[in-house]
Write a structure and sequence with these properties.
Chains A, B: It comes from Flexivirga endophytica. 2 copies of one chain form a homodimer. In chain A, 62% of the residues lie in helices and 12% in strands. The first copy, chain A, has 7 helices and 3 strands. Chain B binds a DNA duplex through residues 4, 23-25, 39-41, 50-57, 72, 75-80.
DNA sequence: CTGCATCCATTAGGATACTG
DNA sequence: CAGTATCCTAATGGATGCAG
């Protein structure tokens, strides 16, 4: 388990979630993996303008935290797939709800009123 | 609207949510405000070991993004309260779900199995 | 009480070039 | 194809001290 997560455990469950799923691209990554396993390259294209380095690091963190499973196939050319654990699927639900919230936040015509009170 | 949010709008709704609600303490802050308005000091005690500076900045960002409303009372000693907008209340629901996820993530005895697949 | 100013250490994340 | 190595900048968040 990563240190930020361990520290968050001392504080509150919400911060645990933030420690695991916070940071750019993680929530989107988990959401994109919800329908099924994807290869690294596919995932990178789906997620958006994320650098390979950053996506790799986020995936490694998610793997360490038990959210995704990384599978390496001994083939040429190399193939690596990522899929969600059960915890990851539960997180994907929340990611999608955050997406719904974001969609409404951006697009709702009543937004100005919504945001001012 | 803050730049990170504007940038996220070009990408995907989930990243909009992350841009608005990501970062330490923001989700917890929103959750603590769900029952009703709180003063700055009350909020700081409720949220946890967050510095005044950081909490202030997060609250300003949340205010700019239309998630909380900041009210200053012309009194001595000064009194400032924070309360959620409608968008903030919707976000609080998601924060609580993330908290439930984190609680299960931390406490579920089947965690090791859950996290390994 | 609220919260700004300043300084500081750590981290996040992108760009580029390179490897098995 | 799926990364890793290196360098870089900007942002994050805490500590302390001061102010209205």
């Amino acid at each position: 388990m990563r240190d930020p997560v361990r520290r968050a455990m001392e504080i509150c469950p919400i911060e645990v979630g933030v420690a695991v799923a916070g940071g750019d691209w993680k929530m989107t990554t988990v959401s994109k993996l919800a329908p099924g396993p994807l290869r690294f390259g596919e995932l990178q294209r789906e997620v958006g303008p994320v650098s390979a380095k950053t996506l790799t690091r986020q995936l490694r963190a998610l793997e360490t935290d038990g959210v995704v499973i990384r599978t390496v196939y001994a083939e040429v050319p190399p193939r690596v797939t990522y899929e969600l654990t059960e915890a990851g699927m539960a997180l994907a639900d929340i990611a999608d709800q955050l997406g719904s919230w974001g969609k409404k936040y951006v697009g709702d015509p009543a937004d100005s009123e919504l945001r001012s009170g």
